[in-house]
Amino acid sequence: MSFSSLRAAAKAMTKRERVIRLDISKSGDLQCKTIMCEKVGGACPCRLARFVGQAASHLTHLEALDVSDSALDVLPTAVFESLPSLKELSARNNKLVEFPSEVNLLKNLETLDLRGNSLKSLPLMELAYLQPKLKRVDVRNNPVELRQNVEQALVSTKTKELESILVFI
């Protein structure tokens, strides 16, 4: 089943329904309400981490996660550790500066959409590890340094095969 809020997904999980797609882009579900948190009122990766951590046993069939347009500056490790079936991850139009190397835990990942962030580098060795399943990594609309850094790293790390799946333009 497909859900557009953490609350709806949590409710379905109590009924033992399989959650296949979770689209919480622009939903406000990641807005922090914890008064002691430095991100109160803004997007908080802790809310996503807490949800994924608590619901991990119910998310084993999750194939698509969309956290786009959520103002996230980091993706929590729980996303990578607890979602073994994830095929599509969309985190476009956030504030990501770096992308976690734990991406290599998503062994079924086929599509990674990171358009419109502030990325300056990518964990190329970890992404190479996901091939041949990984078919597309979209990094359009990121700083110019990303393309320069990635092209330089492709040569030095011998991960040239990634070049065919990276989308810059």
Short structural summary:
The chain has 169 residues and is of the alpha/beta class. The chain has 5 helices and 7 strands; from the N terminus they run βαβαβαββαβαβ. The N and C termini lie far apart (33 Å).
Describe this structure in words.
By secondary structure, the chain is of the alpha/beta class. The protein is built from 5 helices and 7 strands, in the order βαβαβαββαβαβ. The chain has one domain (2-164): Alpha-Beta Horseshoe (Leucine-rich repeat, LRR (right-handed beta-alpha superhelix)), CATH 3.80.10. It has helices at residues 6-14, 45-55, 77-81, 124-129, 144-156, and strands at residues 2-3, 21-23, 64-66, 88-90, 111-113, 136-138, 166-167. Strands 1-2-3-4-5-6-7 form a 7-stranded parallel β-sheet. The radius of gyration is 16 Å and the shape is globular.
Radius of gyration: 16 Å
Q: Enumerate the spans where pLDDT stays under 50 for 5 or more consecutive residues.
A: none
Protein structure class: alpha/beta
Q: N- to C-terminal separation?
A: 33 Å
Quick one: how many beta strands? Answer: 7
Number of individual domains = 1
What is the helical fraction, as a range of percent? 25-40%
User: What does the oligomeric state look like here?
Assistant: single chain
Mean pLDDT over the residues? 84
Shape: globular
What is the chain-wise order of helices and strands?
A: EHEHEHEEHEHE
Assigned CATH superfamily: Ribonuclease Inhibitor
Biggest β-sheet: strands ordered side by side in the sheet: 1-2-3-4-5-6-7
Total helical segments: 5
